[in-house]
Design brief:
The chain is an all-alpha fold and 54 residues long. It is 87% helix and 0% strand. The protein is elongated and about 40 Å long. Keywords: Membrane, Transmembrane, Transmembrane helix.
Length: 54
Amino acid sequence: MREAVIGAIFLVCLTIGCIVGYLFGSTETGGTIGLAFGLVSILLFRKRRGKDGI
């Protein structure tokens, strides 16, 4: 995976979080959830990338 793919995944997570938050009446909460999922995906990518030595 490239850095651009991780950026795209981050934006998708943030967007989905905002949509879910909007459905439940709180875009801030949804955005926070999306942000958290995006950051976790980046951390997992970095950790896996470090193990592969790439």
